[in-house]
Design a protein that fits this description.
Elements lengths: L1 H86 L5 E4 L19 E4 L2 H32 L2
Antiparallel strand pairs: 1-2
Length: about 160
């Protein structure tokens, strides 16, 4: 009987060691899978946050673009209306001030005074409208870029 008991004990011990090894193996696998799942979940959350941020930025940039495109279109329409007015015989009048140096104030001669309005020739009027259009375009582009930087780049 003692030999049979020793064999049974040996078999039970082998079974217990074998089960402990398998349990440890599966536990390590479960831990590794959980770690991988957590890493993938974190990466997915980061990707979702990036997509949300990009969508918001795209929407903001589209609104910014629409705002300034409309502003440019309005300025162009106004400039075109002025151009048509000039084409139909209208004139460009400029009101200006002529700064007088302090040394010449006592000897002002007759001529154009301050706050006088002068009429420009057709060519000069067209040049003024072209310059005006360029200035408006440049100022609008500058405001657009400044707002883009402030709202998108400095976030």
């Amino acid at each position: 009987m003692s030999r049979l008991t020793a064999i049974i004990c040996t078999v039970v011990i082998c079974l217990l060691v074998s089960m402990a090894w398998k349990i440890s193996y599966y536990r390590d696998n479960a831990t590794e899978y959980k770690k991988q799942r957590d890493e993938k979940t974190q990466a997915l959350n980061m990707a979702n946050a990036t997509i949300t941020d990009m969508t918001t930025r795209q929407r903001d940039v589209a609104a910014l673009d629409a705002k300034y495109t409309k502003e440019l279109a309005d300025a162009k329409a106004e400039n075109d209306a002025l151009q048509r007015k000039l084409d139909n015989g209208g004139r460009v009048h400029v009101k200006g001030k002529c700064p007088v140096p302090a040394t010449a104030k006592t000897a002002i001669t007759s001529g154009m005074g301050n706050d006088e309005t002068i009429e420009l020739s057709d060519v000069a009027g067209r040049n003024v409208l072209g310059i005006r259009s360029g200035i408006i375009s440049d100022q609008t582009a500058l405001r657009t870029l400044q707002e883009y930087i402030n709202t998108q780049c400095l976030k």
